[in-house]
Structures are given as C-alpha cells and as structure tokens.
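>> received
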Amino acid sequence: MSRLAALGIAAAALLAPLPAIAQAYRCSMPIGDIARPRPDGPTAREPRRVVPTGSYTLALTWSPQYCRENGKQASARLQCGGGNRFGFTLHGLWPDGKGTQWPQYCRPAALLDTRVIQSNLCATPSPQLLQHEYAKHGTCMNLAPAAYFDRATGLYARIRYPDMNALSRRRRLTTGQFAQAFARANRGMTAAMVKVTADRQGWLDEAWVCLDTQFRYRACPRAGRAANLPLKIWRGGAA
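>> returned
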C-alpha cells in the first residue's frame, strides 16, 4: 500500500461514523485522482491584512444544507456525491482581530501538497476550500500547512454534537435553543460561546465556536443571530 493510500484510509478512519461524534455519517474519499486546487490569494475585495490576533473562530458547516444548495455544482462532488454523507464539516479555523478587522492573506501560499489535501478531505471535503483556508487564514498563524490543518482538525475532532435529527423534527426551534443544545454536548461550553448562522429562510447554515488565543472555548465577542429567531434544520439524506 502506498503512503498516499494509507493517509487516505487513516483520514477516513479518524472520522468514521460514530453517533457521539457525528462529524461524518459516512466518509469514503477516493485514493488518488483528486483535483488540484487553484492558487488563492488576496483581491481588491479581500485584501492582504496583517493585524494582531485576539481570538479564533472554529467554523463548522451543516453539510445537508450546503448540499441542498450547492450539490449540483462540480466543486461539491466530493462532499455531496460519491456515497458520502456528512453532518458538520470543518469550514475552517480563523484568526480574529482585536478590533473590527481580522488578519487575512498574511503571506503568499503555494499550492498544497497532495498528501495534505488527501489527509484532510474527511474533515473539509474540498481541495479548493482547503487551499483557500490555508491561504486566507493559515498564513496568519505562522504555521506550515500540515501544522495548520492538524490544529484545525484536532479542534474539530473534539467537538460533540446534539441529536440533530431530533432537533430537526421539533415543531419550534429557536437559534438560542439550538445554541444551548450544542453547548450542552460539549464540556466547558456555554451557548454564549456559539454563533449560529442561517440563510434568509431560517435554515441552519453554520455553527461558529469562539476560542481564545489558547484555543479554549470563550464567549463570542460579538452577538450572532438573534436567539429568539426560528431555526430550521435540513436533514436531507442524513437519516
């Protein structure tokens, strides 16, 4: 067995379907034949910005909703096709600034090594998103790509989730109730440490976990979606 194959199998095993963890209902990524990402860097709209880091955000995407909206796009093939079914995937680990601005694109980023991509696809099932996350956020953490993703996936693997199927079936669910349920599943976390995002129709999009500079859970410095707003959860194929 090649080293690349071993890395892919190890990644899938790390995030195998475990009810208590529920990162991936099922993850089986192909060995080899993974599309190479395009370079990613600052633009006029998203400029390079080097400012001090005051905290971090661990951003988690609710995959059934993502695939509901994006599943027909070629870029979503790994996440939404090929027999894979995900719960929450890892969007990224983001350095936050001490004020209203945050660091981004702190230095140029080369294309990620294929082995780094392969070993992280069961957490972030998109080579292009992996490239983007390192270029925009990882370069501001003074970490090489492998170390940045090790940090991010280590935090991701620590997260536990409430019963998403039960929550999705509730006749009335608010953003605040979801944040409370999410926090109860994680020791040392409170609802104030979780930001919830949703689309315009109120469907759950992402959960953002706020962290201090030591990567411990902390109260989010700015309020997110209002706690009293109704929230809906799309299950899709995640039975």
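>> The first strand starts at residue 24 and ends at 26.
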